[in-house]
Amino acid sequence: MEWLRKYVEKIKVRRRPFIAFQIEPTSRCQLKCIMCPRTVFSEEWENGDMPLSVYERISRHFYLVDNVHLQGWGEPLLHPNIFDMIQIAKEKHCKVSLTTNGFLLDSNVSTMLIKEGVDIVAISIAGASKDTHEKIRKGSNFDHLLHNIKALNNFKHKMKSKNPKLVLSFLMTKTNIEDLPEIVNLAKEIGIDEIVATNLDYTPTQLQDDLKAFSCDADDNSFKKFIEITIQHAKKIKLPLRIYPLEMEEVVMCEMNPLKIVFISQDGSVSPCVYLNMTKQGPISRIFCGKQYEIERQCFGNIGEYDFMEIWEQEDYKNFRRLYSKRLSINRKIFDFIEDFRNRNEAMDEFEKRLETMLSENPLPSVCNTCYKAYNI
């Protein structure tokens, strides 16, 4: 019945209900980036590696998942079994991606990433110059980082491999956004396939919140010119670019999508997303539009104790997801209204009022309404 097994496996690959499992291999890191909660909460932070046995328990459900993203609040390449993790996910026909600070991308690691078939490697950078980058990502070495990226790209060419796709992840702040146009030139030079310019979307204290490039004030367009220049430049040299918005606007479903994405921390705790789960003592502090909030860690079970589907079907977790399921109905109502809007030629401000009403009638979970990700940042 080998043919039947293969047929069932193909069906599983085609009909995977989860977009991704984001798994944190480790909460350890060599750097002390100024915006990272590991640095801010260093005294309360719990460093640890996910046991391979726990990862293997999670992997029983990889047939349900399209992508396994190996990244949390630590540096994934520090995990002693990272390549076992990659191999297990690939054997389950999952796409595999990871985000790294690039410090450990030596020849052996780069070769293994290619051989194991990793689909995407995102490399974090915080400036187009040594001075800017190293002031933000403390402990990093800008020249060493560029050398490692170039070397990884050269190994890809030598091994005649299109993968991994190399993504440069540029964190936009007030202190480095002027570097954004130059990042395009740098990315082209070192063989990057795509640039993603992200926001400082989690700010644990006022110090980090003051660094963010976006504003809670819709009329603040201080950095718009750098965005426009960067877009034009990337288009000119045909380099794929994605820049996150600098204006806040509540969305029906944030990109973390708790209906289709799950975050599992290094200690095995299952949560809707990485912003609600840090292995630290005490609550999770956050600043949102000038106000301080304390959020309790949102974990609905531990893989070391329960099967994943038991956790997924746990009533508290289902209740959390129901709030987002209700919000999805807004999309259908918006579509109907747009059709009606075309026919009746209603004013756009009426459409905005109705959307605001629909969002207020279907509110975000309380732990999400003070998260910048819920506002398209």
Radius of gyration: 21 Å
Order of helices and strands: HEHHEHEHEHHEHEHHEEEEEHHH
Question: Numbering strands along the chain, what is their spatial order in the largest sheet?
Answer: 7-6-5-4-3-2-1-8-9
Helical content band: 25-40%
Question: If you had to describe this structure to a student in words, what would you say it looks like?
Answer:
With 377 residues, the chain is α/β, with parallel strands linked by helices. The chain has 13 helices and 11 strands. It has helices at residues 2-14, 37-40, 52-59, 82-91, 107-115, 130-136, 142-158, 180-190, 206-209, 224-236, 308-312, 315-344, 348-361, and strands at 18-23, 65-70, 95-100, 120-125, 165-172, 194-199, 241-243, 261-264, 270-271, 284-288, 291-295. A 9-stranded mixed β-sheet has the order 7-6-5-4-3-2-1-8-9. A two-stranded antiparallel sheet has the order 10-11. It starts with a helix and ends in a 16-residue tail after the last helix. Mean pLDDT is 91; it is low at 1-8.
